[in-house]
Amino acid sequence: MGRILRSVKLGMKSLMLHKLRSGLTVLGIVFGVAAVIAMLAIAEGSRREAQARFQMLGATNVIYRSVKPSDEAQLSTGGRPARILNYGLKYEDFDRILATVPNIKKILPIREIRKQIRHDEHALDGRIVGTTKDYAEFNHLEIERGRFLSQHDDDDYKTYAVLGSDTAKKLFPYEDPLGQAVKLGSDYYTVIGVTKERASTAGIGGSLAAQDYNKDVYIPLSSCRVRFGERIMNFRSGSMEAEETQLSQITIQLTSTDVVSQTVPIIKGAVEPFHPKVDIDMTVPYDLIMEAERTARQYAIILGTIASISLLVGGIGIMNIMLATVTERTREIGIRRALGAKRGDITQQFLIETVVLSGVGGLLGVAIGVIIPYAIAQFVAETKAQVTWNSIILAFGISVAVGIIFGLYPANRAANMDPIEALRHE
Amino acid sequence: MSDIFSRKGDGAADRVVVRMTDLRKTYFMGHGSGGGLFGKRGGGEVLTVHALRGVSLEFREGEYVAIMGQSGSGKSTMLNLLGCLDRPTSGEYILGGYDVAQLDDDELSEVRSRSIGFIFQSYNLIQQYTVTENIQLPLTYQGNGIISEEAQERTMELARLVGLHDRLDHRPNQLSGGQQQRVAIARSLINDPYIILADEATGNLDSATSYEIMSMLGKLNDAGKTIIMVTHEPDIAEYAKRIIRMKDGVIVEDGPSPRMLVELDEENHAEVVA
Fold first, then answer.
1. Order of strands, sheet of A231-236, starting from the edge strand that comes earlier in the sequence
2. What is the spatial distance between Cα B147 and Cα B129, in angstroms, rounded to a whole number?
3. Would the CA dihedral through A133, A135, A140, A143 be positive or negative?
4. Tell me, what's the pLDDT at A45?
5. Cβ of residue B215 closer than 8 Å to a chain A Cβ
6. Where are the domains of chain A?
7. How confident is the model at residue A203 (pLDDT cuts 50, 70, 90)?
8. Chain A residues in contact with B183 (beta carbon < 8 A)
9. Contacts of B128 in chain A (CB under 8 A)
10. Do A420 and B80 touch (CB under 8 A)?
11. Which of A16, A21, A335, A417 has the most B C-beta neighbours within 10 Å, making it the best mutation to test the interface with B?
């Protein structure tokens, strides 16, 4: 060990003899290693981001949403567009899923209506969400004040409302909203709770609308059903359009991720035969997670490969320099051999020098490779890069391996020189 | 040590450190014999060079020998064989009791690092190393390569001996030619070798510095070191006590140097006067 350490020290000396040359050689490895780490960090970052986004939807969930069928689909079924457009999930679908599909832990029906929400002179265009007590849990909503809807509220057709944080601020700028009344449509509802502020989720795969939970009002689904009914009239610049929908979304929570793939076909079988018009759309976050995982892995492989090529180029640079060095130091090799160095000593000396070069390059590369992703995250884009220990170990390991592999040939060439010839070399 | 001085360093009574018996070295220089693209045309013609054609000699401990000869005389080959840089084609070479003619490459390296001290014409110091590191270089190739406390002390002692103890951290390019050659002398002594081989040690030095170096070698010899030098300069060869002349791969003359004859004459003269 002491001997290796000494060799490393003396190797450094030889390398410092040509600072610029050694520096430039190291640079090749520095960029290679930095590139590998940075690329892998970016790949890992985007993987985790996608993961987190889908995890938010719940890995054990299966989500059905009502979608308005295209005009073409409407024509093919009705001959001409119906005056009242009837589409989407039905209460029957909900009951059928509940009755026939196994492995269900919880199931959540949701009815969404865009309406004006009023309190005195304050008004707000928001979303009224008719749902049940589980909504808060499914969507990771937390309650700031009061409580969320309960089973009783639903059973008893209560006219209770829970406000999103923005809604509460807009309607009750200077008052405590709890116990006050808000007007939804033509009825008044008593505010029983306010949710905490929550970042909105991005729409995924086009099937889920981007949601801003802060502008919502939650009411019991039963109340929603009896008070708003299923028909919604929209008046738009002189024409009237009516839509009839029963449920906007059904979220099915399964017992575990293991049963997701086997239960999805059963759910499809229970729902889709009753919707020949394509007016519903299924999202399986678990599949999306897996898909994202696969994509991320390919992404990492591609980026890693490209970065590795730069490491390889760096290695070739090292070999090139070491070959030149060996030729240049022929006489030194001769001296060392004359003074008792064995072939193995010469091999070791040059190998150590190469590995020191690549190792120093590797360390610098690791430093830069760790900084780059954070710099990118800081200044350029909202991509979150995540440097992993694995990538650091991998990149540094490769750089040292490159040193050994590309150092062996020059080192052997040095060792196999005839000492007499080498001594005579000018 | 005083013992050695009393014997006038002629080695007559000391043990043999080098014995060469009918040593031959033949080089085969192939012309197109590699079987390459033009192999056929070359017809496998091989040029044979008989560099040494049977050399037998003995060096005793404490001898100071100069090997002379023109280029092509075989003195370089002789030096390479003596220095264990090369193996003879045939014959026997005993160095300090070991038959080195039969050793393999690694064993020869080991012998060089332990039993031989080299002094070269162009000093041959490692440029990136300090004086200390250069002096210790042969030790790094012995055993585990660790420089012991004892070796450190010996390095200091040798540096003092050659008068460079105040320049231990200097690099060769900060030293004059004479100083570099003194570092080389210290280096040749660090492993306490059987023989010190000096190859045209003063070839690159002016006459004043040459004199300085030669007197240093003389002192070492006085202290009992066996020195074998190769030179083509007669006045340098005269510093030695025994001169061997070579021509065409054989020894043509082997006898005491003129300096010794003069001294001998003076002694005889003194005896006669007495």
1. A84-86, A239-244, A231-236
2. 15
3. negative
4. 83
5. no
6. 2-53+291-424, 68-278
7. very low
8. none
9. 13-14, 16-17
10. yes
11. A335
Cross-chain Cβ contact B146/A6 below 8 Å: yes
Out of A75-79, A156-160, B42-46, pick the least confident: A75-79
A331 with B124: Cβ contact below 8 A? yes
In angstroms, rounded to a whole number, what is the distance separating the alpha carbons of residues A286 and A209?
18
* The predicted structure's pLDDT at residue A377: 75
Q: What is the dihedral of CA A44, A46, A52, A58, to 10 degrees?
A: -110
CA-based nearest distance A24→chain B, Å = 20
**What phi-psi label fits residue A265: left (phi over 0), alpha (psi between -120 and 50 degrees) or beta?**
alpha
Could you say which of A10, A334, A342 has the minimum Cβ distance to residue B141?
A342
Q: Which pair of structure tokens corresponds to residue B138?
A: 């042969």
Whether B232 has a pLDDT exceeding 90, the answer reads no
Closest-CA distance, B52 to chain A, in angstroms, reads 16
Mean pLDDT for A58-72 is: 80
| Confidence band for B36, pLDDT divided at 50, 70 and 90 | very low
User: Domains of chain B by range and CATH?
Assistant: 8-32+47-273 (3.40.50.300)
For A136-145, letters b (16+ CB in 10 Å) and e give: bebbebeeeb
Q: Dump strand ranges (E) for A48-132.
A: 61-66, 84-86, 104-119, 122-131
Instruction: Please indicate whether, in this complex, the C-beta atoms of A338 and B85 are within 8 angstroms of each other.
Output: yes
Per DSSP bridges, beta strands B90-95 and B16-30 are antiparallel
Amino acid residing at A342:
K
> Which chain B residues contact residue A332 at CB under 8 A?
126-127
Closest-CA residue of chain A to B118: A339
For chain A, give the percent of residues with pLDDT over 70.
90
